[in-house]
Structure formats: C-alpha cells, structure tokens
Design goal:
- This protein is an alpha/beta fold and 407 residues long.
- The protein has eleven helices and 21 strands.
- It has a nine-stranded mixed β-sheet with strand order 5-4-6-7-8-9-10-15-14, with helices on both faces.
Length: 407
C-alpha cells in the first residue's frame, strides 16, 4: 500500500514553489476578469507577480467582508467572472456567503486528506456532514468519491437510522465532526448496536483535542483532523506523522500579522491567508480570520509541503473601548510608525468602573522619549488615550493576539 496520494506530495519544496508561482500570473489574469477583483487589484500587472514577496504586496480580501460584498452584488460579490450556471452546485453559508462548486473531480481538494487518514479505494464511508444548502456534506462526499470510495450520505442526527445504515453497509470510514462521532459511539455502546466496522475517521468543524483523539483510538477508531472552509475546501490535514497539519497541494498559504497583509517572522503566530489556483473560481489572498503558525522542517511522513500547527484561535480581535471600536490593523499601524518596536499587545481592562487600555510593546530599550511618542501615536491612531508599557524583547507570548480584552 503506497504511503502517499501521488508524487506531488513528496516533491522537492523548491520545485513545488516554482510550479505554484508559475501558475500565479495566469490565475491573476483570470481573477481580474471579474469586476470586484479588477477593482481590488487595479494597476497591478499580473505578469509581475511571480514571487511570494510580490504576492505579499497585493491587498488581502477579508472573509469577514464577504457577506456585505455578496449582498451588494449577488451572488458572488463580483469576484467570479463566470455565470452561476457554469458551476455544478451552488451553496450558502451563514452570513450569508454564497459558494459555488466546480465541475472538476475533487473540487474541494479533499481526497488527499482522506488518503492521509487511511481511506482507500473501495472503502465505504459514512459521511455525517450536512447536505442541506451548505457545502460541508458535498465537500467530503465529492472527495471520498474522487478517491474511489462509496459514500453513505447520512448527514448529522437521527442516530437510530444511522445505526441501521452502519449495520447494513458496514462502513470502514467516518467523516463528520468529532463530537458526532463520539455521540454515535456512545449511543451504540448504550443501545447495544454494532458500529465496529468503523476503523478510521477524518473529522473537522470542531475542536479535536488529544484526549478525544486517544479516546477514539481506544474504541478502535483511528481519527485524523482536517482544517478547511466552505470557500476553499480542505486547506490542511493531519498525516500519520501526527505533527501539525500539512498544507494541501495547489494552494499558496501565507501567515500574516493580524490586521495586515504582512508576513510574520518564521514560527510566529499569525492569520491564515490563502491564494487558490483554480482559474474558474480563484481566491486571491483570502484572509480567513484564523490563526496558526508554521512548523519548521519536513514531516516524518515524507510529505514535503509546508506544515502548520493547526487552528490556534481567531485573528479578528476587534473590541469596543469606551464606545469606540479598536481593531488589530490599528495596532499594526502603530508598529509601522515605530519600527524599533517588536510584538505589540493592547490589553483592555476595567479601572474604576471605566474601560482602560495599556499598550504593551517589546523594545530593546525603554527611553522616556519613546514611551511618550508611542503614547501619542496610540491616541492618534485609536482616538483613545491609554498607557504604554515597554517590555523586553521576547516578553510577549507568541500567540498572534494583538488585542487582549480582559474585562
């Protein structure tokens, strides 16, 4: 049994990088055929975007902005050049955000993730993600069928009927949330139902702590997790190495400082930004609002793509102080005006029944003049007064948090 889905997964990293970047100019040209991208990327020559440094100079598109953009120019906010009828299926997610499914095989790029989790051609898979309006069920359904599996389109809930299907079809695989897998196993144990055919699982959509993973294993199910979105499909996935998550092929993943499009230093926590290379429906620097950090080196499983630690929280830390919103991009602006500072963290608390904020900033030295200058910049940028505390380099946690609301 081969250990990898195909030879792309074990390419030399430089070869992969060159292949991805070679596709980028044409994908940008396709994207700019859509009016919203044409406006967002106005003045940019696609032929010049052939490196990560050049890509990092393009504006980000924030997923949090999509509901308003889609409402203003339905259905896709002007970011898709082709008509809705050119796609295979059309979905909606909370927001609402409207997502099309391509007509190609494995449009959500999930077959690799299932393969890494041990799924193989001919397996029967119980898919418990919802098939109703949202793409979740179809993401895993299409991915399993692209791998050559037969899929039971069970959806979530109705455990009694699920047991009938499991006992009749004897699925070896499960896809769904880890929470529902535990519900099924617990209910089967209580009710004396036979779900012993399920030996492996690919889970997503909820936290999957090590303790729950170990519990699944003790009950005969080897479960792996994947990270994805309704816009992009599966972005990264666990492998048998159990060392973070490997980024999917055909995607360019960046990690940037929250509130900006600027790449973080290697190993630092930041916001996930993804560029997809599907010319039918490209995404150019889509900022997901999720935090992660890159892991160094190559995986022991032999896959050579970039690895991330997994989901580490939300990047959108916007909070309201004294009735005014303070945003991560404002904290980033303070850093740009004072390049001698390292990591920044705005701590919001209560003092005397009133909101109070303190900007903690890493700095090699703490002269009084700099303290006053940063305090003035804090007021100028946020329109709010606050204290400034200069701390030693490396003092602040590497967790991607730039606004900590401790009220």
């Amino acid at each position: 049994m081969t250990d990898h889905y195909d030879a792309l997964e074990t390419r030399d990293p430089a070869e992969r990088e060159a292949a991805l970047l070679a596709l980028l100019p044409e994908v940008l040209r396709k994207a700019m055929a859509a009016p919203a991208y044409s406006n967002l990327l106005r003045g940019i020559d696609p032929a010049s975007i052939t490196s990560r440094e050049a890509l990092a100079g393009l504006p980000v598109l924030r997923k949090s902005e999509l509901p308003a953009l889609h409402k203003a120019a339905p259905p896709f906010g002007g970011f898709v050049a082709d008509k809705p009828g050119s796609f295979a299926r059309l979905f909606t997610s909370p927001g609402p955000i409207f997502e099309p499914e391509g007509r190609q095989a494995d449009p959500w790029r999930g077959a690799r993730a299932l393969f890494a989790a041990g799924f193989r051609e001919g397996d029967v898979v119980l898919n418990t993600f919802s098939y109703h309006l949202t793409p979740g069920g179809f993401i895993f359904d299409a991915s399993a069928r692209a791998l050559g599996c037969a899929v039971i389109p069970a959806g979530p809930g109705n455990t009694e009927q699920q047991f009938e299907l499991i006992e009749a079809y004897r699925p070896v695989g499960y896809s769904g949330t880890p929470d529902f897998l535990k519900i099924l196993l617990d209910a089967a144990a209580t009710g004396g139902r036979d779900v012993s055919s399920i030996k492996r699982a690919l889970v997503s959509g909820a936290a999957f702590p090590k303790s729950l993973q170990e519990e699944m294993k003790s009950r005969g199910v080897e479960a792996y997790q994947a990270f994805g979105t309704a816009d992009l499909g599966l972005i990264a996935f666990e492998t048998p190495a159990r060392e973070g998550m490997t980024v999917n092929e055909d995607l360019i993943l960046e990690i940037v400082k929250p509130g900006t499009g600027d790449p973080v230093a290697p190993g630092d926590v930041g916001e996930i930004v993804v560029t997809s290379l599907d010319p039918h429906h490209p995404w150019i620097r889509l900022a997901l609002g999720d935090l992660t950090a890159a892991l160094p080196g190559a995986s022991r499983c032999g896959r050579t793509n970039m690895r991330i630690k997994g989901w580490m929280g939300r990047a959108d830390q916007t909070t309201k102080v004294k009735g005014m919103f303070v945003r991560p991009e404002q904290i980033a602006e303070i850093g740009k005006r004072h390049p001698e500072l390292g990591r920044l963290r705005l701590v919001v608390t209560r003092a005397g029944e009133a909101d109070a904020m303190t900007l903690r900033a890493e700095c090699a030295s703490a002269p009084e003049a700099l303290l006053n200058e940063v305090a003035a910049t804090l007021r100028a940028v946020t329109k709010l007064g606050g204290a400034v505390e200069l701390v030693g380099t490396g003092s602040l946690p590497n967790d991607g948090k730039v606004i900590a609301d401790e009220r």
